[in-house]
Amino acid sequence: MNFSKLTKLIVLVACTVGLLVPSLVSAQDKEKKRIEESGVVLSDFGKMKESIPSSLLKVTEGIIIVPKLLNAGFVVGGKRGRGIAMVKREDGSWSNPIFVTITGGSFGLQIGVQSVELVLVFKHSSSITNIKKSSFTLGGDLSIAAGPVGRNSTANTDYKLDAEVYSYSRSKGIFAGVSVNGASLDIDTAANLRYYGKGMGPTEIFASQGDPDDAVTKIKSYLVPLK
């Protein structure tokens, strides 16, 4: 290969890399934004007077935050959202997040569109780590109940007995007959690859040390009271 052809090849490779790098950064920014939005949801929930009871938080080993769960329907409806999942490690620290999706359908009296901020509180971290094996159905594979409210409330809860998952949500828009029962949880493999830059599975991500960026550091700080 002569010098002229080699120069052209180098220029072509440089241009290709130059085009790819911004797109990769853009993709990573989307996932970082999802983490940041999840942090905002947790922060806002923490400011609510009628929040998650401390008695439930003490036994929490996992959490899923979906900043925007969209519901739409006219008799037959559907829901779709992207969020993050984190588990509490044995030493009480919180893992790095994995990206997940929640998808479902419904039938019944419903009409309209709604955007919901959703937080799912898990009593056992294994319920989240086992999602890697297949999609999980809320209300099917995992028992789910509307979460009790009130920071210091312990009355009228069954968190010591029955449900594995408790849901908390704030709604925007107009909708009737909303439920996450029957919705499936899946690993967002593509998002994990874009954000972490390599094909790590949920187990590897949960075990990884160090915060990928300040958005992860911040969301972990919101979870400190859950220790």
From TrEMBL:
Residues 1-27 form the signal peptide. GO terms for molecular function: phosphatidylinositol binding. Residues 103-220 form the Ysc84 actin-binding domain. This is Ysc84 actin-binding domain-containing protein. It comes from Pedobacter miscanthi. Keywords: Signal.
